[in-house]
Structure formats: C-alpha cells, structure tokens
Amino acid sequence: MFANEYRSKLRTPEEAVKVVKSGDWVFMSHFAMFPQALDEALAKRVGEVRDVMVRSVCATVSPKICAADPEKKSFTYMSGYFSGHERKLGQKGLCYYLPGNYSASPVNIRNGNMYPPDVALIQTTPPDNNGYFNFGTSVSYARAICEKAKLIILEVNDQVPWVLGGEQECIHISEVDYIVEKSYPLPTLPPAKQETEAEKAIASLLIEEIEDGSCLQFGIGGMPNTIAKMIADSDLKNLGIHSEMATTSYIDLILKGKVNGAMKNIDKYKTVFTFAMGTQQLYDFLHRNPAFASFPVDITNHPNRIALNDKQIAINNTVEIDLFGQISSESSGIRQISGTGGQMDFTMGAAQSKGGKPFICLTSTTMQGGKLISRIVPSIKTFSAVTCPRTFAPTIVTEYGKAQLTGKSTFKRAEMLIELAHPDFREDLIKAAQAQNIWTRTNKIS
Fold first, then answer.
1. Rg (CA), the chain
2. Per-residue pLDDT at 6
3. How many CB atoms lie within 10 A of CB 377?
4. b/e burial code for range 40-77 (CB count within 10 A of at least 16 → b)
5. Ramachandran region of residue 16, left (φ > 0), alpha (ψ -120 to 50) or beta?
6. Of 104, 117, 185, 193, which is closest to residue 148 (Cα–Cα)?
7. Which are the catalytic amino acids?
8. Where are the beta strands (DSSP E) in 318-400?
9. 3-class secondary structure for 395-445?
10. Contact 56, 69 (CB under 8 A)
11. I need a labelling partner for 330 at 20 to 30 A (CA). Which of 7, 86, 139, 381 fits?
C-alpha cells in the first residue's frame, strides 16, 4: 500500500545528509539506536559545512563525525548522557555534556526550551503494512524530536526489534522526508564483570528490602545484575518492573516467573521502560513481546507516575556521597562520567509510592591511581555535579550497612554515613565532620 511512497523517499545515506546546512541543529537517535550509516555519511561532509550542532544520548558506538573533525569546524557533538565512547571523546574535547533532567527533554523540545531540531536522523525498523516505523529499543524522546524537526530522515535497519508500546513508539511514513537503508546488528553491552564481595554484600542488603509484589527499577551497572541474580534464585513472586532501562538481567526474572506485573496499579502485566541496552538475547527477547511496553521518557520517568505503583523499589548507583548527603553520580570533578539520567526522578517517585523505597548504592572504597580511597567523603570533589541534592537523599547502602537519611539532621547524617565507610577512613571522616560543625558530643560510631 505504501510501497510507492517508500520508494520515492528512498535515498543513499550520502544523498540524504545533503540536506544538512551550516548552522543546523541535528538530532540523532539514542543509545543502541544511534544511526551509524547516517553518521558515517555526515562525517564525509567535513569541510562542506560549518558550525553544525549535533546531539544524541549515550551513543553505543563512537560517532564518526568526531573522529573526522577533531578541530570541530564542521561539527560540534554533544550528549545528554555519556557512554564509554563519549566519555573518551569528552576527555579529548570532542564531546560536550548537555546538563538536564532526562524526563524533561520531551516537554523542553515541544515548548521551545531547547534549540529546535533542523534535521532528525532516527534509526527505526522497516515499516509495517500500515506504513508505521517503530523506534525499536529507544523510544526515549524520539517522537518529540520528530514533531519539531523541519526534516526527518529515517535509517531503516531490518535487524532492529519491533518493541511494542506504550505510546509514541512509532512514526508514519507520511511524516518522513527521506529514508535510507542499512542492515547491521545493534551494538551490545559487554558482559557484566564478576561481582566483588562488596557488591554481593550490598545486593544481599537490598534483597531484604524487596517483598512480594514490589515494583522494581534498576539503574545501569554491575550492581543491578547481581541483585537480579539473587532475585531469580529467591522465593519472591509477583514482582513488577517500571524502569528507565530494560536490561538483559530482566530476561531470567520474567522467564522464571518472578516478574509478571500482576500487582502493578498501572500498566498491569507489562514491563515498562523507555530504552533498552544489553545483549543480542535481550533485543531478540524484546521483539514483538507483549510482556514489554516502551514509553517516552516523560512518562516512564515522571515521579508522579512512578509513584502510582505501590512498593516501587528504585536502586541506583553513585560515584561518591559527602557527609551532608549530597550525591554525585555522574562526574568526578570536571570529568563527565555519565549523566543525570533518571536517578533523581526514580528517587523521588519511589519515595512517594505507597510502601516504596529508593536506594543509592556504592562500595565504600575504590582504587584511584593505585591508592585506596573512600567514596564517602567530607565534601564532594570540587566541580563534581550534585545529581541528587541532600534534600532528597534516600537510604544509602554500602557493604557495611544501610542508612536512611530522610528526616535526619546534618550531624546524624554524618554519623550514619561514617558508619557505612570503610573502617580505615572513619577516624579521618570524624575529624572532618568536627571541622565542618556537623559532629556533636552525642555522636558515636559503633
């Protein structure tokens, strides 16, 4: 039915990106859906255009435009959440971070608070019989981008899974200006590293907080995989998932019957997310699987919507936390590591959920320059971003225990956090707390 229209819009990648002009804002799709063929074609235009601003989120491949234009005369690339590739580019001055709350991105685009996209480069599935293309593993805010873009170019990949919604998971051919075709497997995440004893201890403490009927959100990293393994081997049942990210660790939980969504108040029986990153097994599992529903990020990550499910459990990681409860999860000094993501949203949403519990996890120490350092610190590193302010600091978990910071004074927080620190650093932290006037004569460390 739409074959003629499809053929009329079909171009080579090189032909399609000719529409990009000097000074344009170009938005590329996110995560594993980063449009590789269009990126490669755009990189060939170095020297032809100037001052083109390109933005994406957590590209799982290294953008070719960055390598092709190290002087940034043609292209300036920026990301709303750094992947490992973007982190390396950032250290070379080839990628800039876009601060912002991920969940606010759709409304910011629609309301004009962001520079409007001149050209949208979006990877999708092939169309169905009704002329719809699916955004695959990254609904994110693709629909909002397409609504505001002056020109839309789709990169059609027949290896992209068709992920059911939800809502706003598709775009119709009538809305599209040009189509290019390229077949390749989506990038996968490397297997999780073997968990440490400290990570196992943290996971064990968290499992104690999950009960039958809980609704889960895991952040990115090795810790969620460890927790998922423990849940899969537990007696827990009737769990739900309302999350920002779908990961490979969810597969076992669904196949073993631990997760069925039966007790959810909204999106019952559905595992809800806005993007997926993981193994090829995950992408295959997502394909037309009615157990999943992908939504745009302003729906998945809105605290009020998160709170609608009872017993919402939010488990996220951090880089460091200071004695006041300030949580820095995305940078180390001026070095951007990742991004704000949904940590703040899910911390707030789980706190508002009936029976809900938000957690921020970290091992008490890390190695830096061959030296063991504490991740519980007197004050966060200069220039480090505060991802979650002390106002919303929830329960903090290290291998040494749990500390519920909500409603606690500054001196009580200092005491509780020092108890979670590695014993070798506690004395110095007490001295720091005294110097910061957050230690009283009644404070004590067990």
1. 23
2. 98
3. 21
4. bbbbebbeebeebbbbbbbbbebbbbbebbeebebbbb
5. alpha
6. 117
7. 244
8. 320-322, 327-328, 331-332, 335-336, 357-361, 365-368, 371-374, 376-377, 395-398
9. EEEECCEEEECCCCCHHHHHHHHHHHCCHHHHHHHHHHHHHCCCCCCCCCC
10. no
11. 139
Q: Which residues are annotated as a binding site for CoA?
A: 219-223, 319, 342
**Which residues make beta-bridge pairs with 46?**
49
pTM beyond 0.90, yes or no: yes
| Length of the chain (residues) | 446
Q: What pLDDT score was predicted for residue 387?
A: 97
pLDDT under 50 in the chain at which residues?
none
Spatial contact of 311 and 351, defined as CB atoms under 8 Å apart? no
Tokens of 3: 């074959």
pLDDT of residue 441: 82
Fold of domain 197-435: Glutaconate Coenzyme A-transferase (3.40.1080)
| Domain 23-181 = CATH 3.90.650.10 | no
Look at residue 330 in the predicted model and tell me its pLDDT: 96
* DSSP string for residues in 184-204: -PPP-PPPPPPPPHHHHHHHH
Give the annotated binding-site residues: 219-223, 319, 342
| CATH 3.40.1080.20 boundaries in the chain | 197-435
What is the rounded distance in angstroms from the CA atom of residue 68 to the CA atom of residue 79? Answer: 18
What pLDDT, on the 0 to 100 scale, is given for residue 186?
99
